[in-house]
Amino acid sequence: MWAWQLRSPGKMYLTKVPAPRVSELRDGEVLLEVTAVGICGSDIPKFLNGGPLQLPGWPAHEIVATVIAGRSVQMATGARVVGLASSHNGLSQRVISSAETLIEVPPQMPDEEAVVIQPLATAHAALSRVRTMRGASVTIIGLGPLGLLLAHLAGESGAAAVTGIDRIDRSAIAAAFNVHETVWSGSHAWATGPGATHPADVVIEAVGHQTGTLNDAIAIAAPDGHVVGFGVPDDSHYGIDYLTLFRKRLTLTAGTTHPWQPHLTEARAHLLTHPEIARKLITHVLPACAASHGYELAAKPEPSVQKVVINLTSFAA
Fold first, then answer.
1. Residues 90 and 125 in one domain
2. Residues 191-226: tens digit of each pLDDT
3. Which partner from 82, 96, 123, 229 sits 20 to 30 angstroms from 191, CA to CA?
4. What pLDDT digit, counting tens, does each position of 87-128 carry?
5. DSSP alpha helices (H): ranges in the chain?
6. What is the spatial distance between Cα 222 and Cα 281, in angstroms, rounded to a whole number?
7. How far apart are CA 315 and CA 317, in angstroms?
8. Where are the alpha helices (DSSP H) in 56-141?
9. Do the Cβ atoms of 239 and 213 come closer than 8 Å?
C-alpha cells in the first residue's frame, strides 16, 4: 500500500510499505481504509522536529475511514467511521486501530466535514470538566481550529462572553464561533496589560507545546476561576506560578480525551446541529499527493489558513 513517511524534520515522502493484514488484528481492533485525514496542531511539532523513524503514516490521528475487517462487535464491516487512529499513523492507505476510539459517521455527512468530529470531541471532553459555562466570562488563548471549536462550545453552553487571543489576526472568522472579542496579541502581553484588569472566570490554554502560555492563563484567571490546560505539552515538567494559582484559589484541569466514544457521540450530534462550523473551519482540502504541502500550510498559519484536510481517495493534483 502507499503511505506518507516522515524521514527528517519537515520532510515527508510518499512511499510503498507492506499493508496491515487481517491476521494481525487483536481483539477490539479493526482494519480500516482511510478516506480523509485532518491535520491537528499537535501534529505540527512532530512534523517539524522529526526524530527517530516513525510508523508510515505518522503523524496523523484525525481520520475518517471504512471498516474492511475487524475483531470487534462494535464495528461492522463496511461501516464508515470517524475518530482517532490509535497509532497516530492515519496518513496511510490502510491502518489498524482500536474500535473504542471510533464511531459511525452519519450517511449525509461528507468525509471532509466528518473529520471535524474528532477534534470537536476533544474540545467537548475538556469543557466537560469545567463546573459550569453558563454566565461565565471565558478567555481562550489560541484561536487555531481547536481554539475556535472550544469557543463555539463555550458560547453554546451559555458563556456570557468569550474573548479569544491569538498572535494571528482571527477577527474575520472568530465571530462565527461565538467569540465576542478578538485580541490580536501574544498572551503574555495581554496577561500583563488589559487582561490583568479583565480577569476571566474560565481561561483555556489552547496553544500547547510551550510552558509560558499556561502561566499567562493563570495570570488572566479571576479568583475562584478555572484554568483548562488543553494544549498538548511537549515538556514533561512545567514550571507554573503556583503561588498565584494558590492565592486565587484556582482550579486547574488537564488531560487527554477518555473515554472516546461518549465524547465522539456528543461531537457528532453537535456537528449535525451546526454543520456550518465544519464548513467555516475547513479552509483547505487537498488530495493525497499534496499531503506534505498540507502540513507545510498548517505549520505556517495565516489568517486564511485554519483546518487543513487531506482527501485520501484522490491523488489528483
1. no
2. 999 988 999 999 999 999 988 999 999 999 999 999
3. 123
4. 999 999 999 999 999 999 999 999 999 999 999 999 999 999
5. 43-49, 111-114, 117-127, 145-156, 171-174, 187-191, 194-197, 212-220, 242-247, 260-273, 276-281, 291-299
6. 30
7. 6
8. 111-114, 117-127
9. no
Based on the fold, state whether residues 19 and 87 are members of the same structural domain: yes
In a domain, 6, yes or no: yes
Evaluate whether 30 touches 96 at the Cβ level (below 8 Å).
yes
CA atoms within 13 A on the CB side of 68: 17
Number of domains in the chain: 2
Cα(190)–Cα(220) distance, integer angstroms: 8
Residue 222's domain spans which residues?
120-254
95, 124: one domain:
no
**Contact partners, residue 189, CB within 8 Å, separation at least 6:** none
The pLDDT-based confidence of 52 (bands split at 50, 70, 90) is: low
- 126 in the same domain as 243: yes
Q: Are residues 124 and 151 in the same domain?
A: yes
For residues 103 and 44, state if they share a domain: yes
**Same domain, yes or no, for 134 and 156?**
yes
Using DSSP, state whether 63 is helix, strand or coil.
Answer: strand
How many CB atoms are located within 10 Å of the residue 250 CB? 18
CATH assignment at residue 250: 3.40.50.720
